Amino acid sequence: MAKPDLADLDAFTAVARARSFRGAAAQRGVSASSLSEALRRLEADLGVRLLNRTTRSVTPTEAGERLLARLTPALADVSLALDEVNAFRDSPTGVLKLNVPGAVSRIVFPDLIPRFLAAHPGVRLEITAEDAFVDVLAAGYDAGVRYDERLEKDMIAVPLAGPQRFVVVGSPAYFAARGRPSHPREVLNHPCIRHRFPSGASYAWEFEKDGEVIRVQPEGPLVTNSGELELAACEAGVGLLATFEGFVAHAIAAGRLETVLDDWLPPFSGPYLYYPSRRHMPAPLRAFVDFVKAERK
């Protein structure tokens, strides 16, 4: 039996966990054909079939399952050993995978990320922006960003940005034609633009003042998951829009949109970077955590 190559063993674990050559290739940033060739070499070296392949699925054989169970912790130890050496570099190298809400990708990251990459040129960031609630670790991410009501248990959380707030906005032409609501319940008398989340839900608009909380479910002619379309429709006078203040700050400053009910919309805590509590943190993640903490001082 030929001695298998460590890279081929790593390729096997990637494909076996993803149950897909294409999925593993996308995660690794390589071609599916290169992984297929690595598996061909490994199976030839071992003289054992490790994966059952069909046009629709890839599943480990019994031998493959046993090898995967042994390799997973061993390769993790190898990765940690290499990363400990990485920590001695002036600037760490490697890939950092983050899962973040759309609001963070549009409001917080455009200013933060370029400065982080300039400070750490050896780090490559892979950022997925989505509003679906996912298990970031099971999905292969190093860390995630969430607001405090959605933070997972047993995680370390670091504030990523300062307080944020929602605003209700409309165009000057809209207010001239329809008037301005002076109380949250009056929103029900106005056409509103609603945001559809990946779950399919369109959440209530929530207002708070002097300890009183009011939630309303407005109706309107447009429901969408596109923030760009929501903004364009609001500026065109389609109806009122409730959204992050950061999304519409430029339109407000330019006079294309105006706010209402500001005294009913207090700030709330900003997003948190969260990651698992573990003894050793990958160098790219450590660099990002340290950068975020320095920014918040």
Describe this structure in words.
The protein has 297 residues and is of the alpha/beta class. It has three domains: 81 residues, Orthogonal Bundle (Arc Repressor Mutant, subunit A); 95 residues, D-Maltodextrin-Binding Protein, domain 2; 99 residues, D-Maltodextrin-Binding Protein, domain 2, CATH 3.40.190. The chain has ten helices and 14 strands. Strands 4-3-5-14-6 form a five-stranded mixed beta sheet. It has a five-stranded mixed beta sheet with strand order 11-8-12-7-13. A hairpin with a 4-residue loop joins β1 and β2. The longest helix is centred in the N-terminal third of the chain and has 25 residues. The protein is elongated and about 80 Å long.
Which features characterize this protein?
297 residues; alpha/beta; Arc Repressor Mutant, subunit A; D-Maltodextrin-Binding Protein, domain 2; 5-stranded mixed sheet; 10 helices; 39% helix; elongated
Order of helices and strands: HHHEEHEHHEEEEHEEEEHEHEEH
Category by helix and strand content: alpha/beta
- Runs in which pLDDT lies below 50 for 5 or more consecutive residues are none
- CATH class annotation of the largest domain: Alpha Beta
Radius of gyration: 25 Å
Mean pLDDT: 88
DSSP helix count? Answer: 10
What is the CATH topology descriptor of the largest domain?
D-Maltodextrin-Binding Protein, domain 2
How many beta-strand elements? 14
Work out the helicity level. Answer: 25-40%
How much beta, percentage-wise?
A: 15-25%
Number of individual domains: 3
Strands ordered across the widest β-sheet: 4-3-5-14-6
